[in-house]
Amino acid sequence: MAASAISFQVMKHCDVAFLRPGLVTEIECRGWTAGAHLRHAAVRGPRENKATREVVQETTAENAKDMPPKCSVALTHADRIYWPEAGITKAKLADYYLKVWPLVAPFIVHRPLALLRCPEGISGACFFQKHAWRGMSKAIRQVDDPKERGDEHYVAIDDLDGLFGLVQGGVLEIHPWGSTLDAWEKPDMVNMDLDPGPDVSWESVIEAAQEVRGRLADMGLTGFVKTTGGKGLHVVAPLKPKTEWPAVKAAMKAIADAMASDSPDRYVATVSKAKRKGKILVDYLRNGRGATAVAPYSPRAREGAPVSMPLTWEELTATIGPAHFTIANIGSRLAQLAADPWKDFRAAQAVLSY
User: Fold this and answer.
1) CA–CA gap between residue 124 and residue 127 (Å, rounded)
2) How many CB atoms lie within 10 A of CB 203?
3) Are 126 and 116 in contact (CB under 8 A)?
4) Domain ranges of the chain
5) Residue 98: predicted pLDDT
6) Is the domain 81-336 a CATH 3.90.920.10 member?
7) How far is CA 58 from CA 61, 98, 318, in A?
């Protein structure tokens, strides 16, 4: 239990404007939410023996893990609705990212980014953007592709401020490159996208993911799986950034071609929709220079606000569908996790042997 000064607040997630407090009351709570709200709070009564200046937010080793991360980017029009049917606003998207920031940061920080922007939400116009735009938050970096010349700059972020800058700019999906700004030409991960055509069962997609995992293992790589937030699955493997894009793409194409050759009734390696009915596209094209795939934990600009969610292989069952996880249920997801399902991702990186 702790004493707390009562004040009126104008919430902007990153910024809080306080009026001068005049009363003190005692509050019992079980912790703090990612949005800096008390969890399961109950008023115990006034504390006339406490002066307002004595009231501070306590931080101990026990409760430090519950303290939300800090940022300095204020959100304007925080009540703008991005996913109407789910009731997800700009503020709720920001709160979601506060919850998953430690998990998503390794996959979106210090990388060139392609972004799906929907400034008016999914019911308005949406468009992909990979270059800087007018009015972009100063928290978002402008970076130059070493192979391109011109006035257009790519975008990247370094921290939580940068991520909130993306939220402020109406970014609903984040699609990072498979390489970092330190090594544009040498990817540090590969991504195999399993995209089912009509009449393909979810169980078949799971079987395909397991097969990709095995074929990656034959190349000395460790596959990790995540939902796409759409219809399929992504199998992602970490690399030591030693091999350049052409060789990496060729190796992933070899996997896709082999699967299509060995099981032509189940898989295709060509994007042609005419050939995909009842089959799964094993899409290796995410592994070319400048190609991108949706980031782990990125929401999707689709009804229900689904999220591309990392899983353990043991979790990958028929009970979890491709759009099972959403911004709305992320709290229960995180509460049930004993550990980050991709906690060993970087420890498993290896040199591609092909």
Assistant:
1) 10
2) 10
3) yes
4) 1-67, 81-336
5) 95
6) yes
7) 10, 20, 44
